[in-house]
Amino acid sequence: MTDSPNDPAGAAGHDGPDASAPARRHPVRRLARAMVSPDSYGSVLLLILFTYGFSVGVTASWAASLVITVQIGTVWAVLHVSRARRSVRRVASVLFLISALAAAVNLFVGKETTGEGAVAFMSAVLYLIAPFSITRSLLFRREVDLQTVLGAIDIYLLVGMLFAFIYRFLGAVQSSAFFGTAVGDGKFPQDLFFSFTTLTTTGYGNYVPAGNPGQTFAVAEMLVGQLFLVTAVAKVINAYTPVRGPAAGSQQTGGGRAGESPAGEAP
Q: In terms of Cα–Cα distance, which of 170, 175, 148, 182 is closest to 220?
């Protein structure tokens, strides 16, 4: 059976040093293969980016159920690639079912505010589970490879999605407008924009939480984003060394070392 790119036991491969020689000579091809493999964190990265674009681009009230469905699919892919524990998958499956039912109700009712707080809360829980599942998977990998780097990027983006759902939940349940009376509660695209500008400490200032607990969560997101970048991601990038092929001239035809005859005798 072929090992998946995310299999910790198969990360280094076991077909000998020559089996991965073509991939070593073509790092771009290796990256492309990682991005399209269904069992790779590269495919998860593409799915997260698609989810963000879909959530921002599709803003009609009737399409809220489709956005929820895409969000569910993203977390499901994360749990599949990261090989989450059975207990975690069971909890996630219950949340998936409830979110799907809420999406169906919203599709027929046609009101974006129907169960919005409950859906945002369950989505936040799912996006809280996903980064921890990837983290657990990366800790068991034998080496820091391309999958480790892609997994760390996935975690960073999932944290931004997590806080966006937290802001959506707060805007739906608290009595006052989340962004103040001038802006109001906003919609999910605005929550995503505010979340990622906060995570990266860009802070344009056009969206600001009017009070607590929104302000407290914003500070927490800034700290998490910066600490994750300067610790986890920086350490992964520093430890990652792309696999390189043998130096030119180090081998001759027949597999002998430089300076030896094919028969293995010194000249």
A: 170
Please check whether residue 257 lies inside any domain of the structure. no
State the total domains in the chain.
1
Q: What is the pLDDT tens value at each position of the chain, 267 positions in all?
A: 445 566 555 454 444 444 444 445 566 777 777 776 777 899 999 999 999 999 888 877 666 777 877 888 899 899 999 988 888 888 888 888 887 777 777 667 655 555 678 888 888 999 999 999 999 998 888 888 888 889 999 999 999 999 999 999 999 888 888 998 888 888 889 999 999 999 998 888 889 999 899 999 999 999 999 999 888 877 787 777 665 555 555 554 444 554 444 454 444
Domain limits at 144? 27-239
SS3 109: helix
Q: 234 by DSSP, 3-state: which?
A: helix
Q: How many other CB atoms are found less than 10 A from the CB of residue 29? A: 11
| Cα dist from 188 to 75, 105, 112, 120, 225, whole Å | 18, 18, 11, 10, 20
